[in-house]
Every structure is written in structure tokens, then in C-alpha cells.
Amino acid sequence: MSSLNLLVLIVGMTREGVGKTALAEGLAAGLKELGFRVGVMKPMGFLDWYKDYAVVREGAEEGVLASREAFEARLLLGLRDPPEVLNPLAGLVAPLNLKAFYDYRVPRSFFVYQADIMRRTVVLRVTLLKAGETVSQGYVNKTLLEKGLTILDRDDVMNLLKRADRVEEVYSPHELAAIVASRAPEAIRSCLSRLSTKYRLIIVEGLGDAAWPLSDLSIGVHAVVAVAPGMAVAYDPERYKLAVELKAEVSGEVRLEDIADYLTPRAYFRLPPLSYGELPETRAEKLSPLIEYVARLAEA
What is the Cα–Cα distance from 2 to 63, expressed in whole angstroms? Predict the structure, then answer.
């Protein structure tokens, strides 16, 4: 990224929904009103076929699997970037076929699958930029489909991969996890580089309570905002990144809980309820102290 860009990291204090998306969209809208060119990114996101069906259908119409946040960024913020660039890695979580688990006489395995998001991921899409062009690859969980462990069929999945340049089959959640670990750094870095040519500020929304959704620790950030229900806290970005680096050397994947003791908040922000039915501009009015905080950093 260019040194002229400001990267704002939005992360969750807990895994449960804490309103990161509503805050990120409101922050982006408020900064846009102040005259900044603002982009957003969801490095990795999952869609639940059952809960996010409207978004899945929209994706199927375009032939692309992408997170709800990517489609909302285009609709609500007017971004014209391909959803694959706004969301380099996307997975679709499929509803399980409970009958199949009884037919195989392993009903308890239903609960094992239900508790593990990678076991229920029926397709993964990874996109990166090469020579200025998007290159997307899809990975289909053949085991889920062939054994009938999901209520989806192959056509449901392939409709979301029409724009993919290549599709491969995988046979286990471990393969999917390995693909994410190996492909994420380049995918995120290349898409972020594309966005950095267009936007002065880029707001990056994390997944759950993952402390470093950018995957690549060589990427620098300029602001870190952690979100909890009713409150957000800003951390020193350099100290935050150092804490992630040190913890990652020991345990690999780092959650915010793992590094909280090593961080000293710079500022606190009360968050009124942010409704998904509100326009981003309405949310921005509720987030003015946070918007002013980020704007000052951008102008410094």
C-alpha cells in the first residue's frame, strides 16, 4: 500500500455479532461526507445459505460468491469495485441434511459438523489480482455433496462459481483450512493494492474476533477500532500489531482476547444501537466522535 493511504482495521471483541458491519458502513459514509475517498474490504467472509439466502441469490445471478458486506458496500456506499475484490476470500456454509446423518447411523456427527464452520463449508472462492486482472478459483467440498450431508446440490454451488476461472474439488475441511492459510496473504494483499490506487482511506472489517484479518503481518495499519456491544475502543496500531506478531509466534491464530492484556486503549466511543435498516448516513450521525477521530488521523 502507498504511504498516502490510511488503513483502518475494524475488529470484534467477541465472536458473536457485535455490529462491525453497521459501524464500518457508518464510518465509511461519514468519512465520505467529509470529502475523503473511502473504500472498504472484508478480507474473508462466510455466507450462510439459509440465513443469507437473499445475498446468495444475488450472488448466483451474478455468478459470484461474495459476502453480504461486499454487496452492501456497492449498494449503500456506491462502490463500483467487483465484489471479489472487496471480499477476496468467501465461503458458503451449507445447511446440513439431518436425515443423512441418521441414514448413516451417526446422528451425533451432526453436532460435530454443526459446531465446525469448515466442515459445513461447501464451497470456497479465492480471488487475487494478476497483471491488473482478477483471477478467481473455486474449491468445492466434494464430500459434503457426494455423501448428501447437505441439502444443497452441485448446481446450487456451481451457480456461484460462474465467474471463477478454475474450480477444484477438495475432500476435507482440513484441505479447505490449508487453502485459506496458503492463499489468503497474496489474495488479500493484491486486492488491497488495487483498492489503494482508488481510495485515500480503506476500512477493513474483520471476521468474528480474529485479531488480524489481513492475514499478512507485513501490511501496516494506521488505526485499530475494536467493537463490543454498545462501545468501541481505539488502540495504538503499532503496539496492536506487535502484540499480534508476538502471540502468533506462539499460537498461530490470534483472537482479540489473546492480546487484550497487552493493549492500552487510546480512546473509547459509546455506540448507540445501529440498525441494519438504517441508511449509512443515519448511522454516521450516531458515530460522529469516531468519525472525527479517524478524520484527524487522516489529516495528520
Answer: 32
The last residue of a domain, from among 158, 183, 208: 183
| pLDDT tens per residue, range 241-261 | 999 999 998 877 899 999 999
Residue 77 lies in a domain: no
Rounded to 5 degrees, what are φ and ψ at 123?
-155, 145
Q: Which residue matches cell numbers 461486499?
A: 70
Q: What is the pLDDT of residues 72-81, one digit of tens each?
A: 988 888 899 9
**Range with the poorest average pLDDT among 235-244, 270-279, 282-291:** 270-279
- Assign residue 215 the CATH number of its domain: 3.40.50
Beta strand pairing call for 231-235 and 133-141:
unpaired
Please name the amino acid found at residue 269.
F
The Cα–Cα gap between 62 and 59 comes to 5
This model's pTM is above 0.90: yes
**What's CA 88's distance to the chain center, in Å?**
9
Task: Walk across the sheet containing 166-170 and list its strands.
Answer: 44-48, 89-93, 121-130, 133-141, 166-170
Q: Please tell me whether residues 62 and 163 are part of one structural domain.
A: yes
Task: Find out whether 289 and 23 touch, Cβ atoms under 8 Å.
Answer: no
Please give the distance of CA 142 from its chain centroid, rounded to a whole number. 24
Alpha-carbon gap, residue 85 to 64, rounded angstroms: 11
